[in-house]
Design brief:
alpha/beta, TIM Barrel, nine-stranded parallel beta sheet, 9 strands, globular
Length: 273
């Protein structure tokens, strides 16, 4: 079984210290790689680069920075990729990224497939490229068919693998994989796993990204809303069982959205190993 973990950039000295402490725990699980999210524009991008530098100097685990189209041009992207090459980065996660309301021109890359094609053309096989997949449809896609078409375009542009948005309905994942494979998009599609630790936070995230939370899970979360220990125990059981059911059906890779915390991702990984 292959496990990977996502972090967001550490922006303070305390955050960097906390991330180092968390890394020590994750390193012990021998993960396949770590990914680091990438903010749109300005200091958020600088924080990502700094965090990549921190990780490459403190861990032997492969590090995969996120790259987003928003606000990027070819010259900026070339400088960034050259710097990542210098740091020894061999893997990247390519996303279109969210477009801030105030921005009029998102840059030279309007869709993720354009950035994938740019990297493949200019860096050959120097980077392994992962892209995003949405088993329940991207929130900005007009139809499921359109969403699937966009995914297939990313594969045709040269994507080597994909990581999904989180979900709690495994049938949605397997149905998506079947559909894109029938269209020739036969690359590894790793399920993204979001641990359940906070009702309000999960409800807010899910509304933004249009991820469905089954009614029976929502009902239990509401019941445990003021009992954090019971809520976390329930979340651990639900997500662990979901992963085990996927393993039974042949899934062997899992990517955890950690929120820069070691738990409960480590406990889930242990439960399904």
């Amino acid at each position: 079984m292959n496990i990977s973990y996502e972090f967001f950039p550490a922006r303070t000295e305390q955050g960097k210290q906390n991330l180092n402490a968390t890394l020590g725990k994750f390193d012990a699980t021998n993960p396949d790689f770590y990914s680091v999210t990438f903010g749109a524009l300005g200091s958020a991008q600088d924080a990502t680069f700094d965090t990549i530098g921190q990780l490459t100097s403190t861990t032997k685990v492969s590090v995969a920075p996120h790259l987003t189209c928003v606000g990027s041009d070819k010259e900026q992207m070339t400088r960034l990729l050259d710097e990542y090459t210098r740091l020894g980065v061999k893997r990247v996660v390519v996303l279109r990224g969210d477009v801030p309301p105030a921005i009029r021109d998102i840059g030279e890359f309007h869709y993720a497939n354009e950035l994938v094609e740019f990297i493949k053309r200019n860096y050959a096989d120097q980077f392994s490229i992962d892209v995003a997949a949405y088993p329940e449809k991207h929130p900005q896609s007009k139809t499921v068919a359109t969403d699937i078409e966009h995914f297939v375009n990313k594969v045709k542009a040269g994507a080597d693998g994909a990581i999904t948005q989180y979900f709690y309905n495994i049938d949605a994942y397997f149905h998506f994989v079947d559909e894109v494979q029938q269209l020739g998009a036969d690359i590894p599609i790793v399920p993204g796993i979001m641990p359940i630790t906070n009702y309000d936070q999960l409800a807010r995230f899910s509304k933004i990204c249009d991820a469905d939370i089954p009614t029976w899970i929502l009902n239990r979360l509401e019941m445990y809303r003021d009992d954090i220990d019971s809520l976390r125990a329930f979340g651990l059981d639900v997500v662990s069982e979901m992963c085990l059911q996927m393993k039974i059906r042949g899934v062997n890779d899992f990517h955890f959205y950690t929120m820069n915390r070691s738990e409960p991702a480590l406990s889930i990984a242990n439960n399904i190993s």
